[in-house]
């Protein structure tokens, strides 16, 4: 009879990689905060873009694809529908934000606010509501569990080194 192998806190290279990636994501997020401070104070308030329409077409194309995938996969309870719904929520919120903040005052701004309030934000909220419960039910990580924490940076099982 085979015995079940007990799970150690950080037994494999995969766990070490998870620790390294976790720290890399934190470092990327912190560097993004620095970047936000720089662009907030040093970027010109007006800028011309040679690829303005391509930027919007790219964002709207990603939005369209995520919405179509959500519609395709969610009815069949396919896991890809959950990912697509979460992606749709994020992209729609980004689109609403950039529509409103990049529009000129007047009719353009009013149209952007209406589109955000009546379409983009409600659909984003619906998409998030569709995605979050399945994601929560699939998560096996328990935030306060010792087995889900990175070991100290001086631990040999975490090759990331000091945080």
DSSP, total strands? 0
List low-pLDDT spans. Answer: 1-11
Gyration radius (Cα, Å) is 22 Å
Strand content: under 5%
How would you spell out the order of helices and strands?
HHHH
List the total number of helices: 4
Shape: flat
> Can you give the helix content as a percent range?
55-70%
The N- and C-terminal alpha carbons lie at a distance of: 43 Å
Feature tags:
163 residues, mainly alpha, 4 helices, flat, disordered N terminus
The gist of it:
It is built from four helices and no strands.
Set out the fold topology.
Blueprint: H1 13-42, H2 52-73, H3 79-102, H4 107-138
Helix pairs in contact: 2-3, 3-4
Your description of this structure?
The protein contains four helices and no strands. The chain is mainly alpha-helical. The chain has two domains: 13-44; 53-137, no CATH class. α2 packs antiparallel against α3 and α3 runs antiparallel to α4. It is flat, with a radius of gyration of 22 Å. 12% of the residues are buried.
């Amino acid at each position: 009879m085979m015995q079940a192998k007990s799970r150690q806190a950080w037994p494999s290279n995969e766990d070490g990689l998870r620790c390294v990636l976790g720290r890399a994501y934190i470092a990327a997020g912190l560097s993004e905060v620095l970047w936000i401070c720089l662009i907030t104070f040093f970027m010109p308030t007006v800028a011309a873009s040679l690829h303005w329409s391509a930027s919007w077409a790219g964002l709207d194309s990603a939005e369209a694809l995520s919405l179509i995938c959500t519609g395709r996969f969610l009815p069949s309870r396919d896991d890809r529908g959950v990912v697509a719904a979460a992606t749709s929520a994020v992209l729609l919120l980004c689109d609403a934000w950039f529509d409103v903040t990049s529009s000129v005052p007047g009719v353009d701004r009013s149209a952007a606010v209406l589109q955000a309030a009546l379409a983009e934000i409600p659909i984003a909220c619906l998409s998030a509501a569709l995605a979050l419960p399945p994601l929560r039910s699939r998560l096996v990580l328990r935030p306060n569990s010792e087995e889900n924490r990175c070991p100290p940076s001086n631990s040999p099982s975490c090759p990331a080194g000091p945080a």
